[in-house]
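The instructor's notes for this session suggest beginning with a concrete chain rather than abstract definitions. Hand out the sequence below and ask the class to guess, before any prediction is shown, which regions might be ordered.
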Amino acid sequence: MQEFILEFEQVDYNYPNTKNKALNGLTLKIPTGKKCALIGQNGCGKTTLFLLCNGLYQPNSGRILWKKRPIDYNRKSLIQLRQKVGLIFQDPEQQLVASTVEEDISYGLCNLGLPETEIKARVEQALVEFGLTELAQRPVHHMSLGQKKRVSIADVMVLQPELLLLDEPTAYLDKLHTYNLMTTLKKIHSSGTTILMASHDFDLVYRWADWVFVMGDGKLLLEGKPAEIFNQREIIEELRLEIPLIHEMVSTLELIDEKAVLQKLKQQISNQFRF
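After discussion, reveal the predicted structure:
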């Protein structure tokens, strides 16, 4: 039976001094251990959902449950939650706070008040795991965008979260850096981390995700396996989203194959009833 690591139950959220709801009765369950993708037009509520996931925002109504227990919004509980739910922003500049790579990775651990020996060991491990050892003393502002994204992931993963949230992680990356990032995410997932990624790269979503959520107007509109979602062409096009090219190709090949099978069957029937 599928378990869920984080659940939204009829969640509403309004930004201050706005009338429209950013989330409008959202009910959504993130399956434990899966690679999940979140898609939808800009303004549909994806980023708001992420900020609610780790307690940066608190819902106006409804409940958010972590492993079946409602989130508490006291300081101690939120610190614990943010160790378990790691959030990586689209722009790594929002996340990098220290002067060097090594200092930046150690920042969150220092805030937890861990022993210095443990901090050093975990930072060294993160530098190795994310290929940052040679950049340990590099000033953060001297790094490329791809390198900064890698550091921002290391910043979060050094806290050993159980759920990793990524908001448009491949935005502005070239093919090489995108490939390197996805390789890193594969390692993270294989270590047991559940991943939820918001993306406008639907070809990547189709190839990568186990499960896809489709949002619109602050609500969950569709969910399912990638092929199931993109087979619902009318709904996807009505939402002004794209059908992945790879899905189009697979569908075309299946149609060609189906026609070939039917033609062969017709020929067999015809031969059988010939005089």
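Then share the key points. The two ends are 57 Å apart (CA to CA). The chain is about 45% helix and 20% strand.
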